[in-house]
Amino acid sequence: MTERIDRREALRERILSAAEARIVAGGVAVLRARDVMADAGAALGGLYNAFDDLDDVVLHVNSRTLDRLNGALSDARRGLEDPAQALQASALAYLAFARAHHPLWSALFDYRYAFDRRMPDWLLAQQGDLLVHIVEPLRKLRPDWDEDTLLLRARILFGAIHGVVSTSLEKRFVGLSADRLATEIGAFVDVIVAGTLHGADGGAWGSTGD
User: What's in the keyword line of the UniProt record (predicted)?
Assistant: First the structure.
């Protein structure tokens, strides 16, 4: 039994590594189960001995990407007590990760799973972990905010930064040029920090709507 489990885990790892390499080389849109299994050195049917289907493989590749991204943001914030500096570091680390691992980062948002597939709780929890890098600095800036407000504002800020990064790296019409992107993201975070602090005296972003 132990040997069988070990073989299955080894096959899972080969499949994940092969799928990840394919995504890096050509993007998630062209990922095909037959190619992945050929790269993994196994028959096509072996996929279903290790995963539910190709969607399940991508879920686990995305999980590994989220682990790396979370680690990069943790490293960027480490030792920074000032919340404004921590938010700056997290935003710029997010941009750096997206640039350095663009196909894998894109797969987090671009892959289309089966329409009736519900994201597993463990992956949703990993996604939520990213917000910690925003929630903790915001809590220092606004200790008067309750947890629901902190989470809401963290989601808004994450969405805003992600939108700027995404439109710029994908070279969409409102995107920023590469030489301005980091500078403008930093300036945007400065505006958010200033607005958050000003909100303690009634500013719009600082209002909880109570």
Answer: Transcription, Transcription regulation
Query: What are the structural domains, with CATH classification, of the chain?
Result: 1-51 (1.10.10), 53-201 (1.10.357.10)
Distance from C-alpha of 196 to C-alpha of 207, rounded to nearest angstrom: 9
Burial class (CB in 10 A: 0-12, 13-18, 19+), 30: exposed
Give the residue from 167, 193, 209 showing the smallest Cα distance to 83: 193
Which candidate, 12, 16, 97, 9, places its Cα nearest to that of 62?
16
Which H helix or E strand runs over 53? none
Question: Tens digits of per-residue pLDDT, 103-146?
Answer: 999 999 888 887 777 888 999 999 999 999 999 999 999 999 99
pLDDT digits (tens, 9 = 90+) for 14-62: 999 999 999 999 999 999 999 999 999 999 999 999 999 999 999 999 9
Copy the structure tokens of residue 97: 């990760």
- What lies within 8 Å, CB to CB, of 74 at 6+ separation is 133
Please count the residues of the chain.
210
